[in-house]
Amino acid sequence: MRVFHLAGRCVGCGACSRACPQGVNLRLFLDKLRLDAEELFDHQAGVDPEGHPPLRAYRPDDYNGFVM
User: Fold this and answer.
1) Non-local CB neighbours of 24 within 8 Å, separated by 6+ positions
2) Is this prediction's pTM over 0.70?
């Protein structure tokens, strides 16, 4: 669940993979989430210090295709 919390916040530094006691390369998963945040919400982590993560901000024109 913590990895999903980082969606749109990860800047790709790799600290999560270095800190993982099990040696899991979390960066691979976070890379995918970072690409999804850019594609679906036009958001890049770390670019706008005043911006909000995409899962915290709402815009009327946000993509809603995943909602059933």
Assistant:
1) 17
2) no
